[in-house]
From TrEMBL:
It catalyses: (6S)-5,6,7,8-tetrahydrofolyl-(gamma-L-Glu)(n) + L-glutamate + ATP = (6S)-5,6,7,8-tetrahydrofolyl-(gamma-L-Glu)(n+1) + ADP + phosphate + H(+). This is tetrahydrofolate synthase. One of its GO terms (biological process) is tetrahydrofolate biosynthetic process. It comes from Limoniibacter endophyticus. PROSITE patterns: FOLYLPOLYGLU_SYNT_2. Its cofactor is Mg(2+). Keywords: ATP-binding, Ligase, Magnesium, Metal-binding, Nucleotide-binding. Residues 49-267 form the Mur ligase central domain. Belongs to the folylpolyglutamate synthase family. Its EC number is 6.3.2.17.
Length: 440
């Protein structure tokens, strides 16, 4: 048995004991924290990040900025794409598999078989790891919502950063943006700094701002206190202290300027000054697997038509669809190619809303199953949702089959296609595993 499988088997055992996916409450993890000696109270300064879209990119930008300053950074994100240990970075490095397995077993033993969700166990693992290994700062991404997310035991965040809010996880968070915003605002703690990223909804912004002001928090808002623009192929960040004229982020899409700006503002609000040199270095070094990630080699490129451009993106709601479609439109401006989608989605998502963003752009959608989740949408039903959004769609048995079909039918005299594999982080993880290029 290798070390990786030890951690994976430990989690599989937990999933069999605690099959419930979501049960929004803090009572169980509070009980568990007490048994573990309250490790959540022994963390380095924490930047706590919530939001519907962009929180992963903001996490990546914060990490890049802080590391450019020479700091060591713990990072917690979810879900993982290929391997469980992707969720935990200790001082910049992915957690060792045997350490992860040992910590999971220790936390599970402390829980003593009582009712709990696996995500709560894994969050407790994060608190234990981050409390027992030194770092200058920790970045913690919320799993679901905010108020009752198990990461919300963080009592004194150096900064709470809330990224764009839109409809997603309506079953758990509510079906109106103001309800979702109220849940995300639950990570705001009285008197501690709050940064609000670019919001699509004035209603969401009002809910977040009102909460911060009511709790007497120092408040910094995108569009009011700071902003980022593209000028002459450069990024200009400006706040009350001045401006930076720096390279554009290497992460594709104009939306990444606002995400980068929110991260700069959050680092500053958390007490970590950002220089132009740091910002420049961060924009060039930032990495975020599975979000507008271009595949440069591996099995996927061999299966696709010769010269095809392959992108992966795990966005899975209408807001994310719009952002991805805009990023692909930018690529189209630079180098026109026919666009094809290979899409798999969970059956809990607004599939038609997601696909609607690509109307008039995509030549065809191949819908494929998600094999790593029991909640994957049947490919026929997903194709029907894509057609409702005005797209040509065809159900296919797998990513490989879709790429092979494209290759077999591609006219070599036509410009090679641009292919987006996406609609779910689960599907992106499967694509990365198939390609032999898991995140590192």
């Amino acid at each position: 048995m290798n070390l990786k499988s030890a951690a994976a088997l430990e989690i599989e055992r937990l999933e069999s004991l605690h099959p419930k996916g979501f049960d929004l409450s803090l009572d169980r993890i509070r009980r568990l924290m007490e048994r573990l000696g309250n490790p959540h109270r022994r963390l380095p300064p924490v930047i706590h990040i919530a939001g519907t879209n962009g929180k992963g990119s903001a996490t990546a930008f914060c990490r890049a900025l802080l590391e450019a300053r020479g700091l060591t950074v713990h990072v917690h994100t979810s879900p993982h794409l290929v391997n469980w240990h992707e969720r935990y970075r200790l001082a910049g490095k992915l957690v060792d598999d045997d350490l992860l397995a040992e910590t999971i077993a220790r936390v599970a033993k402390a829980n003593n078989g009582e009712a709990i969700t696996v995500f709560e166990i894994l969050t407790a693992v994060m608190f234990v790891l981050f409390s027992e290994h030194p770092a200058d700062v920790a970045i913690v991404e919320v799993g679901l919502g905010g108020r009752y997310d198990s990461t919300n035991l963080i009592e004194k965040p150096a900064c709470a950063l809330i990224m764009p809010i839109s409809l997603d996880h309506e079953t758990y968070l509510g079906d109106r943006v103001e309800l979702i915003a109220a849940e995300k605002a639950g990570i705001i703690k009285r008197g501690f700094p709050v940064v609000i990223g670019a919001q699509e909804s004035d209603t969401a912004l009002e809910v977040l701002s009102d909460t911060a002001l009511r709790l007497q928090c120092p408040l910094t808002v995108y569009g009011q206190d700071f902003v980022a623009l593209e000028e002459n192929g450069r990024m200009v960040y400006q706040d009350e202290h001045g401006l930076f004229d720096i390279s554009l982020p290497v992460l594709p899409g104009r939306h990444q300027l606002a995400n980068a700006a929110a991260a700069i503002a959050a680092c500053k609000a958390a007490g970590f000054p950002v220089s132009a040199r740091m910002a420049e270095e961060a924009m060039l070094n930032v990495r975020w697997p599975g979000r507008m990630q271009k595949i440069e080699g591996g099995k996927l490129t061999r299966l696709a038509p010769s010269g095809a451009e392959i992108w992966l993106d795990g966005g899975h709601n209408p807001g994310a669809g719009i952002v991805v479609a805009e990023a692909l439109a930018e690529q189209e401006e630079r180098f026109p190619r026919p666009l094809f989608l290979i899409s798999g989605m969970l059956n809990t998502k607004d599939q038609t809303g997601y696909f609607r963003a690509f109307e008039g752009m995509a030549r065809r959608v191949y819908t494929v199953p998600i094999t790593s989740s029991n909640a994957g949408a049947p490919v026929g039903e997903l194709a029907a949702r894509a057609m409702q959004a005005g797209l040509n769609a065809e159900p296919i048995s797998s990513i490989e089959h879709a790429l092979q079909l494209l290759k077999e039918n591609w006219d070599p005299d036509e410009i090679a296609p641009r292919i987006l594999i996406g609609g779910s982080l689960y599907l992106v993880g499967e694509a990365l595993e198939l390609n032999g290029t898991p995140p590192t």
